[in-house]
Amino acid sequence: MNSPQTYRRAIPADAHIDTWAAPDGWKLRCFDWPAAGQARGSILFQGGRGDIFEKYLETFAHWHDAGWNVTSLDWRGQGGSGRLSANPHVGHVEDFAHYIADFRAFWALWQAATPGPHVLIGHSMGGHLALRAMVEGAATPAAAVLVAPMLGLHSPIGAALGERMAKLVTRLGNPARSAWKGNERPATTTTREALLTHDHGRYEDEIWWQRERPELLLGPPSWKWLSRAFESTRALRDDPRLATMPVPTLLIVAEADKLVSPAAALQVATRLPDARVMQFGAESAHEVLREADGVRDRALGEIDRFLAAHAPAG
């Protein structure tokens, strides 16, 4: 058995990278790593805005070593799933409903083709879309884990005014143009690395992959993406179906997160009928699963215990 660190900068030899055609024909890049021998179940992991699955190979190896099949799909418009704007470095989408439509179709095929129990894990935007998919009936996992979920956005002018401004700006020019330059978050002097993780080595892993596969690199979001993100997170927070969403859900929240709103995640957790919350303080930035070992190992341990209780091997 290889150390999970073996895979930080290498695709596992027994993993597969392929493309999957969405119902409208759009090609999305898919990663699949079947368990060695009989699987104890299957995990579908969905990353955040601008993420690529290569960033999480070390974490995938942890689950794979525990006997899980591990699958991940690049969201439409990022990673290896093509671009939706003329500028390949701008993350654009016309409507978050497109993400959900892709996910609904993929989930149905993946669930039918892989052994259960089936688990859905989402980070950041992936956490938002995972919860929205469950609320809308697009996915029915045995258990779900939302890591630093994007259930509210940080905005220097507040979420309500930020949404109104983003909608206005999309009407005043090209809605696919970049909402800002450079960093992950506007109006901040904090470095991108500090916003994401305290672990310099893991941050450098991402930069290595960007140099190795520059076509996967994505920069800032478009104004339309930003407008739709405000809209979708607000609508999900207000959705009465949260109270009847039956999937046992673990939310891992970084209280010092400066990219998404930890307060919004904690508020949503109180409305879910079967939710558990794990919180980190100043020791964790946004990318909990790519943090320093003290944080990352605690988070993975909690996920393992949660899945043992709610998605036991058949």
From TrEMBL:
Domain Serine aminopeptidase S33 as annotated: residue spans: 38-293
Q: Which residues form a coiled coil?
A: none
Q: Which UniProt keywords apply?
A: Hydrolase
The yes or no answer to whether the keyword Transit peptide is present is: no
InterPro entries (alphabetical)? AB_hydrolase_fold, Hydrolase_4, MAG_DAG_Lipase
Query: Does Hydrolase appear among the keywords?
Result: yes
Output the Gene Ontology terms for molecular function. hydrolase activity
Q: What is this protein called in UniProt?
A: Alpha/beta hydrolase
In which organism is this protein found?
Sphingomonas hylomeconis
